């Protein structure tokens, strides 16, 4: 989570004090928002926290897909898994013959 009092700095300040800011990022695992002319332009984050963010985003996308599938099932849409896999494997078998 970003601490508005400590984690927003100008790009110029970041350039002047890069080592200190990197140490801060590693210690707090909070991203830094860097501004140019007073407007947020960049976010700098440690690799471990960024990986966690990517994994959380992937989980959200997976859950959205599951929710969509359940909604479709409740509306009577889609196919039974058995029918899908039978069609799928038949299609693969046909493609492998050519």
From TrEMBL:
InterPro entries: Antitoxin_Phd/YefM, phD/YefM_antitoxin, YefM-like_sf
Species for this entry: Anabaena sphaerica FACHB-251
Pfam hit, one: PhdYeFM_antitox
Lineage start: Bacteria, Bacillati, Cyanobacteriota, Cyanophyceae, Nostocales
Name of this protein: Antitoxin
Family membership: Belongs to the phD/YefM antitoxin family.
SUPFAM superfamilies attached to this UniProt entry: YefM-like (SSF143120)
Alphabetical list of PANTHER family matching this protein: ANTITOXIN YAFN-RELATED, PREVENT-HOST-DEATH FAMILY PROTEIN
Record's function text: Antitoxin component of a type II toxin-antitoxin (TA) system.
């Amino acid at each position: 989570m970003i601490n508005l009092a400590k984690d927003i700095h100008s790009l110029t300040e970041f350039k002047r004090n890069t080592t200190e800011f990197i140490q801060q990022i590693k210690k707090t695992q909070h991203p830094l928002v860097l501004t140019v002319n007073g407007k947020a332009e960049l976010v700098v984050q440690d690799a471990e926290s960024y990986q966690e963010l990517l994994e959380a985003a992937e989980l959200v996308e997976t859950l959205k897909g599951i929710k969509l599938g359940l909604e479709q099932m409740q509306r009577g849409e889609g196919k039974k898994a058995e029918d899908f896999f039978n069609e799928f494997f038949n299609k693969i078998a046909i493609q492998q013959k050519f």
